[in-house]
Structures are given as structure tokens and as C-alpha cells.
Amino acid sequence: MTSDFSEEWLYRQIAEGVSDAFVFADAEGNIRLWSPGAAAMFGYSREEALGQSLDLIVPEAMRERHWEGYHRVMRSGQTRYATELLAVPARCKDGRRVSIEFTIAMLRDESGAIIGAGAVIREVTERWQKDKALKARLAELESQA
User: What CATH number does the domain containing 34 carry?
Assistant: First the structure.
């Protein structure tokens, strides 16, 4: 059984239905798309996030480094995180720090000018904490050997 769904409709259903976050920020770093997964992950509603700077979720200690990289990518149009995962901490509305991994898609207008970056984001805090504990245990065991 096949149905005649448009690609646009299918993309929307996927983006709005998965627990991963879909976020698009314009070239200045203002949030223009905030999926239900982003709202659940970070605690900000769509209405609270749209139009806000990415500082909303970037921890204060990471902002300078974040903006240096963001502006460099907006100027060059090149990022290795189109194909590689970037793992960083993020900040939620309630102040919690979480670990996230994401890839970036550069978006361009019809003339090829960069209009911003979209990201597919997954929260991986639990795995990060387990990995950290395993590394600590391994270091402890190696020091006893």
C-alpha cells in the first residue's frame, strides 16, 4: 500500500516526531526553527526559543569559542561537522548542563549565499557519564598494577 505524501510533509512529520532536536539558526546565530524534540530536550517552548540567540543553549563559559567557530563557518561555508559529530555541553532552561552531539547542514539561498546552519542534535548525557566513570575506573586499576 503506497500513499501519495509530499516529501515536504514527510520531512515535517519526521522532524516533528523524533526525539532528536532539529534547530536552524540564521547567519547571525538567531534561532529560526525549533522542533518539538528541541523543546523537550532543552525545556524552552518554540515560542520562547524562536528569535533568540543560540546563547539560549550555549553555556556561558563556551560562548566565546562557540561564536568564533560559528562566525568562521558562516564566512567560509565550510565545516567538518557536516559529516563528523561535534560533542559539546549545552544548557537547559532549568539550568542543567547536558551533553549533546550534533551534525550541521549549511543552508544557502538560491544564489548560493549562506543563510544559516541547521543541526540535528542528540542528548547523550547518560552515555557521557558512563564513559567518564569507566575511564576513571580504568585509570584507577592501571595505577594499582
Answer: 3.30.450.20
Residues 114, 24: Cα–Cα separation, whole Å: 12
Nearest of 121, 107, 101, 105 to residue 37 by alpha carbon: 121
Buried b (16+ CB within 10 A) or exposed e, 112-127: eebebbbbbbbbbeee
- Could you read off the pLDDT of 116-135 as tens digits, one per residue? 999 999 999 888 778 777 78
CA proximity to 101, closest of 123, 79, 84: 123
Across-strand partners of 86?
A: 102
What pTM does this model have?
0.84
What residue has cell string 544557502?
A: 108
Q: Is position 68 within any domain? A: yes
Distance separating alpha carbons of residues 79 and 97, to the nearest angstrom:
25
> Domain range for residue 124?
7-144
